[in-house]
C-alpha cells in the first residue's frame, strides 16, 4: 500500500496530517532517513527553512531526501518546503542553507518581506480547478512567504500572484519598496510543478480547501500506478456518510 509521509522536523506538519485526514488519508510522520523507505510520497511542510535544514542535517536526512526525489517519487513542498525543493535559493541567512533541490527554479526565501508582511489573497488556480473542480480561485495564505523568481523550461506554472504596484518587489540585490504607481502590476510565481515535484509558496494546509492535497494525492496515485499496483492508503473514514467529520486542529480559514 502506498503511504504518504510528512516531514515532521518542524513547522506545519500536524496541519498537513489533519488535511490528509479530512480526505480519509493517513499521513505518516517522517523524522529519520530510514523512514523514507516506508513511504511512497512526501510532503515537506512550511515553517522556517533554515531551522528545518539544520534539523535535517542533524538527522542526516539530506542524502535520503535527494535520493527520494531522484527516484521520481512525488514530493510536495509548501512554503519552507518549496525552498527545500528549489535548485537555488536567494535571500538566505549568512552562510546559506542546504537544499534538497530537484525543482529547476530559483526561490527568494522571504520575497514578500518579513513576518508582519504576511497576507492572504485569492489566487487564480486554473489547472487545480480543472483537475479538482470547485472555484477558480484558492485562498492563498502567505506567511513570510517565498516566491519563485525564475523557472526552467520543464517547470509548469500553476499559480501566480499579481503584485500591486506599491508592494514589495524582488530585485537581484535586495527586496525593495517601489513607489506607488511606479511600476505596472507584475506577476510573481507562487505554485509550480515539475514532473513528480510540486511546490506552493502558500499554506493550503491552513485552509478548509483540500484541493491541493487531493491534487497531490492524485500525483502519488499516478506514480504508484506507473511503478506497481499500489494505491494510496485510505484510513477507515467513510467520507460519503453524513457523520460529522472530526478535525484534529482548528483551520485557519
Ligand atoms: N511559512 C514559511 O514556511 C516561511 C518560510 C520562510 N520564508 C523561510 O525562509 O523559511
TrEMBL record:
NCBIfam families xref list: PLP_synth_Pdx2
GO cellular component: cytosol; glutaminase complex
EC number: 3.5.1.2
Name used for this protein in its record: glutaminase
Gene it is expressed from: LOC110412174
GO biological process, one term: pyridoxal phosphate biosynthetic process
The organism's taxonomic lineage, starting at the top: Eukaryota, Viridiplantae, Streptophyta, Embryophyta, Tracheophyta
Catalysed reactions, semicolon-separated: L-glutamine + H2O = L-glutamate + NH4(+)
Keyword tags: Glutamine amidotransferase, Hydrolase, Lyase
InterPro entries: Class_I_gatase-like (IPR029062), PdxT/SNO (IPR002161), PdxT/SNO_CS (IPR021196)
Amino acid at each position: 500500500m502506498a503511504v504518504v509521509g510528512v516531514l515532521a522536523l518542524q513547522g506545519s506538519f500536524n496541519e498537513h496530517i489533519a488535511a490528509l485526514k479530512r480526505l480519509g488519508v493517513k499521513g505518516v510522520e517522517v523524522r529519520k532517513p530510514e523512514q523514507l523507505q516506508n513511504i511512497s510520497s512526501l510532503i515537506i511542510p512550511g515553517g522556517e527553512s533554515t531551522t528545518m535544514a539544520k534539523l535535517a542535517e542533524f538527522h542526516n536526512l539530506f542524502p535520503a531526501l535527494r535520493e527520494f526525489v531522484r527516484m521520481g517519487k512525488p514530493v510536495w513542498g509548501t512554503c519552507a518546503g518549496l525552498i527545500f525543493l528549489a535548485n537555488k535559493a536567494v535571500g538566505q541567512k549568512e552562510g546559506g542553507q542546504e537544499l534538497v533541490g530537484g525543482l529547476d527554479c530559483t526561490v527568494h526565501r522571504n520575497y514578500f518581506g518579513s513576518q508582519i508582511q504576511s497576507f492572504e489573497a485569492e489566487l487564480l488556480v486554473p489547472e487545480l480547478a480543472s483537475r479538482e473542480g470547485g472555484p477558480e480561485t484558492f485562498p492563498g495564505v502567505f506567511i513570510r512567504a517565498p516566491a519563485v523568481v525564475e523557472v526552467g523550461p520543464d517547470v509548469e506554472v500553476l499559480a501566480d500572484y499579481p503584485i500591486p504596484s506599491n508592494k514589495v518587489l524582488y530585485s537581484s540585490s535586495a527586496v525593495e519598496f517601489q513607489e506607488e504607481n511606479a511600476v505596472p502590476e507584475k506577476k510573481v510565481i507562487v505554485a509550480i510543478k515539475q514532473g513528480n515535484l510540486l511546490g506552493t509558496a502558500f499554506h493550503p494546509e491552513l485552509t478548509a480547501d483540500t484541493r491541493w492535497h487531493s491534487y497531490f494525492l492524485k500525483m502519488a496515485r499516478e506514480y504508484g500506478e506507473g511503478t506497481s499496483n499500489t494505491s494510496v492508503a485510505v484510513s477507515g473514514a467513510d467520507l460519503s456518510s453524513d457523520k460529522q467529520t472530526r478535525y484534529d486542529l482548528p483551520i485557519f480559514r
